Amino acid sequence: MKVVVDLSRCEGYAQCAFLAPEAFGVHGEEALMYDPNPDDAQRDQVLRAAAACPVQAILVDRMEARHAPAEVSPS
């Protein structure tokens, strides 16, 4: 999974840091720090954090659909 935060849109509410503390953190009073490639074990937390962002500054690209092997139908 890949995470991108639009830092020009982020207003420092830090809801993401509360919901996914291993992927998001606040440095100082307003500087958001984040892991652009969080572990898949954090998937649910990261998705909740993105959904909870009041300004929708977090974009999550769930890359598994692109990298999943194609299913082969039985003949």
Q: In words, what does this structure look like?
A:
By secondary structure, the protein is of the alpha+beta class. Helix content is 25%, strand content 21%. The protein contains three helices and four strands, in the order E-H-E-E-H-E-H. The chain has helices at residues 15-19, 43-52, 64-67; strands at 2-5, 24-27, 31-34, 58-61. Strand 2 and strand 3 form a beta hairpin. 17% of the residues are buried.
Order of helices and strands: EHEEHEH
How much helix is in the residues? 25-40%
Shape: globular
Number of strands: 4
Low-confidence stretches: none
Distance between the termini: 33 Å
The proportion of residues in beta strands is: 15-25%
Mean pLDDT comes to 87
Spatial order of strands in the largest sheet: 1-4
